[in-house]
Hints:
By secondary structure, the protein is α/β, with parallel strands linked by helices. It has helices at 11-22, 57-61, 79-82, 86-107, 141-160, 185-194, 214-226, 244-255, 279-285, 293-307, and strands at residues 2-6, 26-31, 48-51, 69-72, 111-117, 163-169, 171-173, 199-202, 208-209, 211-213, 233-236, 242-243, 261-264. The chain has a 7-stranded parallel β-sheet, sandwiched between helices. Strands 7-10 form a two-stranded parallel ribbon. α5 (141-160) links the parallel β5 and β6 (163-169). The chain is globular.
Amino acid sequence: MNYLVLGGAGFIGSHVVDALLAAGHRVRVFERRDCDFGNLGRVLNRIDLRLGDFTRVDDLAGVLDNIDIVIHLVGTVLPATSNLNPLYDIETNLKSTVSLLELAVARGVKKVVFASSGGQVYGPVTALPISETSPTEPISSYGIIKLTTEKYLKLFHQLHGLDYTILRIANPYGERQKISGMQGAVAVFSGRIKNRQPIEIWGDGSVARDYLYIADLVQAVLKACIRTLPVKLFNIGRGKSLSLNDLVSLLLEVSGRTVPVVYKEARSCDSPVNFLDCGLALKYLDWQPQVDLKTGLQRTWEWVLANA
């Protein structure tokens, strides 16, 4: 099959590219011109790399030629900052994705696999675990745009027959995630531990999330690509929650180090607890996570220590 991975040089994207190549597929990657391609260093000579701006239709048009499946991993904002400029979120993410879908229909693309959010789409919840039928009340522009994009995928399927699968992904972690970013507690905390700096936590550390190891996420993406299913929407997570305080304790145990923890004012975009019911993924995708949390954290720490 001919795959296009939007955002293929990123943390998730580069692992997906590796897996697609290992499975014998032909892979085209679309990325920003100023992107760091270090994650693709070992496979650059095996992929069709295209550079451009996701917000420019002219840049997107050519990359969809002769593509069977599009894996959409591009995002221009973070949950914590998206509310600062909702119009930018609309212009760069929602509008650009609708343009992508129009081009996909025109070019004869068979399927789009979209990375949605298993946390931001639902917002604060009253019942756990969260199923795909739970209420969706996002409290960030990021979540609203993800949810609206899901609706457009359904619309394009109804209007044009464009197949799609939506993965509402929990909090992914693992090798290649940036330790200096604003997103990804495992990577950021690991980076602070490596550099022997204090770990900063928003709130009292009781906020709990569903952490999913990158190798497990990649398998979910691949299964979503190759199956045509009556169900189009899946939660993808470990199905268990872990508080930030407990995460820090595990990382300190894995690393064998000790650093101070500094607590800061809680953020309004953070719901208290979130973990996903992934029963539909098991039933229809034949997918469930295989890597236990401590093993995943150990692998991540070893990578951070050696590479980050």
